[in-house]
Write a structure and sequence with these properties.
Elements: H1 2-60, H2 63-94, E1 97-101, E2 111-112, E3 115-116, H3 117-134, E4 139-141, H4 151-160, E5 165-172, E6 182-186, H5 194-210, E7 214-219, H6 224-228, E8 233-240, H7 244-251, H8 253-271, H9 274-278
Parallel strand pairs: 1-4, 1-5, 5-8, 6-7
Antiparallel strand pairs: 2-3, 6-8
Helix pairs in contact: 3-8, 5-8
Bound molecules: zinc ion (ZN).
């Protein structure tokens, strides 16, 4: 019995020793694992720092970074340029077009068979103004009523308004009453070519709209309307009151409407040249 008891206790002690070794082993293993994980995390963090540093530093030290800076400045620049372009476009749209019904008041212009030039001019000018306004343009008539007004004062007012265009409407007369047709005057000395372009479009579109006799363009550097205006300008003689057939047409609403349509189309084409190619 005694021998069996001693063996029993010896086994018991050995088991406890083994358990002790195992616990120590587990603790050591746990500590090692924790250390390995900590070292791995430290290495990874360190690597990330290196990569981040490279990403930040590389572009700054290369020409690419300088190009990026230039591009950024250019982008900001084009933004401002775009804004300026929009502001300019808005200001341009707000500028008025001046339509001038020639003569007025005591100055009736030419007259035949009771038909006065100033009245026909005014009737056509009103129609042009209506058509342009219907298309969204801002229009000012150089004379508002049947009043005497100096040509130079009309131009001065248009210059003061910083008008986009100035178009004067007149009727013609000639001793030979067989002469008829439409002609447009402009200032040939205008080096920009703007006045000629406007006159060309007006002559072309009015002939197209009316089927009238095309007398072409004419230039007179002394002409007040075309030489003193700061904006592109021209003067259209829409027909001969001295010619009976043309005078009768000029008195009708229908023919005046055709003339006005041609003038409005020309102004539209002048201000929106892209539509020339689209039509
Ligand atoms: Zn006249």
């Amino acid at each position: 019995m005694y021998g069996r008891t001693r063996r029993y206790y010896r086994r018991q002690r050995r088991r406890e020793e083994i358990r002790g070794y195992l616990r120590t082993f587990v603790w050591v293993l746990t500590v090692i694992c924790i250390l390995v994980v900590a070292v791995a995390m430290a290495v990874q963090t360190n690597t990330s720092k290196v990569v981040a540093a490279e990403i930040q530093e590389v572009p700054i030290s290369t020409d690419e970074a300088k190009l990026l800076d230039v591009a950024s400045v250019m982008t900001k620049g084009s933004g401002r340029a775009a804004l300026t372009a929009v502001e300019n476009a808005k200001a341009e749209v707000n500028r008025v077009i001046v339509i001038d019904p020639g003569h007025g008041g005591m100055d009736g212009g030419c007259g035949f068979a009771g038909v006065l030039e100033k009245d026909i001019n005014r009737e056509i000018a009103d129609k042009v103004a209506d058509k342009l306004q219907a298309r969204g343009y801002r229009v000012v008539l150089a004379r508002k009523a049947d009043e005497l007004m100096d040509k130079a004062d009309r131009i001065e007012e248009a210059n003061r308004l910083n008008a986009r265009l100035y178009v004067s409407i007149h009727q013609n007369s000639y001793k030979d009453n067989s002469v008829s047709g439409i002609e447009t005057w402009y200032d040939e000395s205008d080096e920009t070519g703007a006045a000629k372009r406007l006159a060309t479009l007006i002559q072309q579109e009015v002939i197209k709209a009316t089927g009238g006799v095309d007398r072409g363009l004419a230039s007179d550097p002394e002409m007040c309307v075309t030489s003193k205006s700061k904006m592109p300008s021209c003067l259209i003689e829409t027909g001969f009151l001295s010619n009976e057939a043309e005078r009768k047409k000029l008195e009708t609403n229908e023919y005046q409407d055709q003339l006005a349509e041609g003038i409005a189309n020309a102004i539209d084409l002048y201000l929106h040249p892209a539509t020339v190619y689209l039509v």
